[in-house]
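Progress report, Aim 2. The chain analyzed during this reporting quarter is listed below.
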Amino acid sequence: MLSTGNNIDELLGLSGWKIEKYELDENSSTVYLYLSPEIGYTYECLHCRTGVLFCHDHSAPRKIRDLSLWGYSCFLVFSRGRIYCPECKRVVMEHLDWVEPYQRQTTRYEKYVAGLCDYMPVMDVAEIEGTGKNLVYRMDKKWLEWRNEMYKRNDPVRHLGIDEIAVKKNHKYATVFYDLDRSRVIGLVKGRKQRDVSSFFRRWGKENCRNVEAVCTDLWSAFHNSINIYLKQAQLVFDKFHIFKYLSDALEDVRRTEQNILNEEDKKLLKGCRWLILKRKLTRYKDKQKLREIMALNENIMKAILLKEAFYQFYEASNAEEAMLILKEWTDQCTESGLAPFKKLARRLNRWKSGILAFFETRISNGISEGINNKIKVIKRRSYGFHDERYFFLKILNATGMFPNMQEIAHPRNS
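Predicted structure tokens for the chain:
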């Protein structure tokens, strides 16, 4: 055991405390710092923060984890004071800024570990720090909850996006809400039913709902019903990427139907050409040649491909009036084509044409959701899935910029 000087006490950074001695365990690469209060130290009540000069007694020595020291795992050993509080009229434990009651690690060590979890999986952090994965998970979740409560960004949202993501197998979904202007997730709820979406708007508040000028979503009626109740002033816009998906689905239905009735020799030509038919632009000569052969082989597939190509003119229109004329002409062509999937698509687009045409007034889409959804998939894959959905949602909000960086925040008890 060796004595230490004032310089080391300054490096410790715990106001009112000094290092009496330390022990170094070379076998486990661990250093133990023994602490004691400085002369003139003022004790504070744990409950009311009333200051007193004298200590009633001390608890048994505690050993808690702190930030690593020069490559050694560091533990602080100290006795917590018990004081008589004149306000509370009883003996209580003293308040310490740097460690919470009943915790076995300092607040700054918790912040450090939670910061690592922003960039690494919990398992890797636990292995690096030589601690249990459950402890790392609890620290990370606790700090994420604090950041959500105290530092969550609440900027006015003008353009709101709503989409769904799969969180588990067997059609288990969550609804994601995006700030389209800032490319940020602002909230998630479990499920995609009307009551699930409505629960988000109720928690979000009337003021935030009034700020929304336009909402971009797909054709899922549960979203529309909730929007009509809570965002009455907002313009409903149907996402163009979902419209193109419905177009691709209709084209694929035609291809499958026609492929099933062809003879074996003609089926070989269609085999493996799904991407070729769905792709918008072909650059290679052999791809173009094969597409011409497919169109020459089957009239219905040719009609479907021509309808697909004609639809691209719709979103190239300069205004809503021009787009409405193109849409009417295109849906008429679908009806005349005799192709059941395209006739069904034409009826669907006519039914929702007001929301589809609203795109030309707002020019918003859920295109950013694809990039954010890829981030979400990376989070799931990196952590090998999540058993705690609340923790999963907090990780998504953090990864998409809803919370500030860990270096920018303080512990809520010290802020």
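The first helix runs from residue 6 to 12. The radius of gyration is 31 Å. These observations will guide the mutagenesis work planned for the next reporting period.
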